[in-house]
Write a structure and sequence with these properties.
Blueprint: H1 2-33, H2 42-61, H3 72-97
Helix pairs in contact: 1-2, 1-3, 2-3
Length: 99
């Protein structure tokens, strides 16, 4: 059964790494949006393509859309931190039962 425990630990670490990487991508996109980037730049297109599927539903959900400031990156980052503290830690604790 220790193999299943090791598998869950490995999956938890991969999920944590992916969530951290995605959080940094969102931070980079938010910082780049302050300087009015070139929309034809491949890096800017990549950042928008990767983050927009998550941030657009959050924007629609927020009550103050037309206020001039976009806080959807903050909401998504808070959700990522929640997932890291809840999901990843739960997976790590669950793996202890299989060791």
């Amino acid at each position: 059964m220790f193999v299943l425990g090791n598998l869950i630990v490995a999956l938890a670490k991969v999920v944590d790494l992916v969530l951290t990487l995605y959080m940094w991508i969102i931070i980079i996109r938010a910082v780049i949006s302050w300087v009015n980037p070139d929309p034809y730049n491949p890096i800017v297109q990549f950042l928008y393509r990767v983050t927009e599927p998550v941030m657009e539903p959050v924007r629609r959900w927020l009550p103050f859309r037309g206020m001039g400031i976009d806080i959807s990156p903050l909401i998504v980052i808070l959700a990522i931190i929640f997932l890291q503290n809840f999901l990843v830690k739960s997976m790590l604790e669950m793996s202890a039962y299989f060791r």
